[in-house]
Design brief:
single chain; alpha/beta; Glutamine Phosphoribosylpyrophosphate, subunit 1, domain 1; Rossmann fold; 3 domains; 8-stranded antiparallel sheet; 6-stranded antiparallel sheet; 24 strands; binds fructose -6-phosphate
């Protein structure tokens, strides 16, 4: 939550900052602001409640002077309402020569604020962040050493923070500190950048450093120094960002969500690429650091939140069926408070698009402290989760900007399938020929996703026609159940419609009471070829709800001759190995939710109250 960007170098800093904020706006959009030090040495700040466009308007009304250093922030409100006054940056000291931005929560802010109030400090906002601005300004006034002042203050803060500071007296210096909130450095030629993630600067440089826990960055145009909170140098390796800058722009699509849904043939394909040989055998070299636990695991625990947890739920079916291993899926925020039973043979797999979800990071740390090895399935290079895990299986979905996850979800499922097949091989749970056959089916997915997208217009039309719906139910069985949950989540998130996903078999145990005349129900129908004969059971479930007035929209496989007799609308997806159908089945649900939200005139990329990266617990 909250996006942070910093810059020092020859370019116009306001342009770099606004460009970075535009790419980080998915992190929070309650307010936005920038501070910079103009070429004639003045600290200038503009900030506004609301989306970034409001800040852009404010700058157009009151232009900023030319500057080559600055910091920018886009906010997801925690302390204090989303007002102009609570927007970042916050100014520190009576002379207001220092500017600070913050992502996170300063847990001991009340006692620090009391101390400042007693010393006569006047506050301009209700935020916890302003406390840090005044503290650094006061320390600097005493010592005249900005770096030492900054270091002493960050050592006093408790909680989660990424903090950036600039000071009018030091017009070549940006300081940053990180604890439990993300921060990445972008290395340029005669210029350097800071960002909450690489999207902030990927259009300018692909050389990056991921800043570690409790570290301070001293950023100048001609160099970057990283220290720990005690002031000791902290060596870092740089990495090359593999995202294409254009991937983080809309590229002519009406929304990021539309673009990201359409990206899925590529994002699924890129996630599979290089990990399946021509025979269909899985090759996952990135698991080498945890090969022991992968070989000897007697149990897998997935930790994840939201959509990522639903991807893990899909994965669970594959792991159990193919690799014959016990799997549980835990919501990260529940996991560590349950005193879970963990042994050295428990493989913990943390699934996260951003790699910055605080709940999942805390679950990972908990598992590591308990002696488990952690594998991350992560989409973001340089993310904290990737740094802190023992091995990383990257999904190669590219930057996902729309708040509602789409392409990251299908890429996560693809990665799960690879991992499940790999473990099936190691555990000799599937004959090699059968495993390779599934591997070859996996390779067909990108083309089949393209087919789904090509015929998705009918689902969009349907979505539009449900603009007045008050509630939509989703049903699925087996691997279709988590897809029902994900379909419901998409609708809640972006269309603000009550939606619930149910296991179709659970219907008669209660939820069927919700069904009345005209109730829309979307049903994921398994393949008639499914050897577990779930198809007739789902058809029976459809008949049960139809008998009670439900309006049924079925997602079914091409060639299913039965389903159209029982559903008002059927959207057909191509045939594929039943376990792999989830990737194809979810796409019409994404399109349905987006079309419905668009019909209601809602912003599908930035739904209310949400932020993409939930970096507070
Ligand atoms: C829903 C959505 C969220 C995220 C969840 C975890 O569309 O995007 O539910 O899936 O907040 O985020 P990551 O995967 O970044 O850990």
């Amino acid at each position: 939550m909250c996006g942070i960007v910093g810059y020092v170098g020859p370019r116009s800093s306001v342009e770099v900052l606004l460009g970075g904020l535009r790419r980080l706006e998915y992190r929070g959009y309650d307010s936005a602001g920038v501070s910079l030090i103009s070429n004639d040495g003045r600290l200038e700040t503009r900030k506004r409640a609301g989306k970034l466009d409001r800040l852009v308007e404010a700058i157009a009304e009151h232009p900023l002077d030319v500057a080559h250093i600055g910091i920018g922030h886009t906010r997801w409100a925690t302390h204090g309402a989303p007002t102009d006054g609570n927007a970042h940056p916050h100014l520190g000291g009576a002379e207001q020569k220092l500017s600070l931005i913050h992502n996170g929560i300063i847990e001991n802010f009340s006692e620090l604020k009391a101390e400042l109030l007693a010393a006569g400090t006047r506050f301009a906002s209700e935020t916890d962040s302003e406390v840090a601005a005044h503290l650094v300004a006061a320390e600097y006034q005493k010592s005249g050493d900005l770096i030492a002042a900054f270091r002493s203050v960050v050592n006093r803060l408790h909680g989660a923070f990424t903090i950036l500071v600039i000071h009018q007296d030091q017009p070549d210096l940006v300081l940053a500190a990180r604890r439990n909130a993300p921060l990445v450095v972008g290395l340029g030629d005669g210029e350097n950048f800071l960002g909450s993630d690489v999207a902030a600067f990927v259009e300018h440089t692909k050389r990056a450093i991921s800043v570690g826990q409790d570290e301070i960055v001293i950023l100048r145009a001609d160099g970057v120094t990283i220290e720990d909170f005690a002031g000791n140098p902290s060596p870092h390796e740089e990495f090359t960002v593999d995202w294409d800058a254009s991937a983080a722009s809309k590229g002519g699509w009406p929304s990021f969500m539309a673009k990201e849904i359409a990206d899925q043939p590529q994002s699924v394909g890129d996630t599979l690429m290089g990990r399946l040989d021509s025979t269909g055998a899985v090759v996952l070299d990135e698991l080498a650091p945890i090969s022991d636990v992968v070989a000897n695991a007697d149990r897998i625990i997935f930790v994840a939140c939201g959509t990522a947890a639903y991807a893990a739920e899909v994965g669970k079916y594959a792991f159990e069926k193919w690799a014959r291993i016990v799997v549980s899926v835990e919501l990260s925020h529940e996991f560590r408070y349950r005193d879970p039973i963990l042994t050295p043979n428990t493989l913990v797999v943390a699934v996260s698009q951003s790699g910055e979800t605080m709940d999942t990071l805390m679950a990972t740390r908990y598992a590591k402290e308990a002696g488990c090895q952690v594998l991350a399935i992560c989409n973001t290079q340089g993310a904290t989760l990737a740094r802190e895990s023992d091995a990383v299986l990257y999904t190669h979905a590219g930057p996902e900007v729309a708040v509602a996850s789409t392409k990251a979800f299908t890429a996560q499922i693809a990665a799960m399938h690879l991992l499940a097949l790999h473990m099936a091989g190691i555990r000799k749970a599937l004959p090699e020929a059968a495993a390779n056959q599934i591997g070859r089916e996996l390779l067909k997915l990108p083309a089949k996703v393209t087919e789904v997208l090509a015929s998705a217009g009918s689902m969009a039309e349907l979505g539009k026609s449900f603009g007045d719906a008050k509630s939509v139910l989703f049903l699925g069985r087996n691997v279709g159940y988590p897809i029902a949950l994900e379909g419901a989540l998409k609708l809640k998130e972006i269309a603000y419609i009550h939606a619930e996903g149910f296991a179709a078999g659970e219907l008669k145990h209660g939820p069927i009471a919700l069904v009345e005349q005209g109730q829309p129900v979307i049903v994921i129908v398994p393949s008639p070829a499914d050897s577990d004969s779930l198809h007739p059971k789902v058809i029976s479930n459809i008949q049960e709800i139809r008998a009670r007035g439900a309006k049924v929209i079925a997602i079914a496989e091409v060639g299913d001759g039965l389903v159209s007799q029982f559903a008002e609308h059927v959207f057909y997806v191509p045939q594929i190995q039943p376990m792999l159908a989830s990737i194809l089945n979810v796409i019409p649900l994404q399109i349905f939710a987006m079309a419905l939200a668009n019909a209601k005139g809602l912003d599908v990329d930035q739904p209310r109250n949400l932020a993409k990266s939930v970096t507070v617990e």
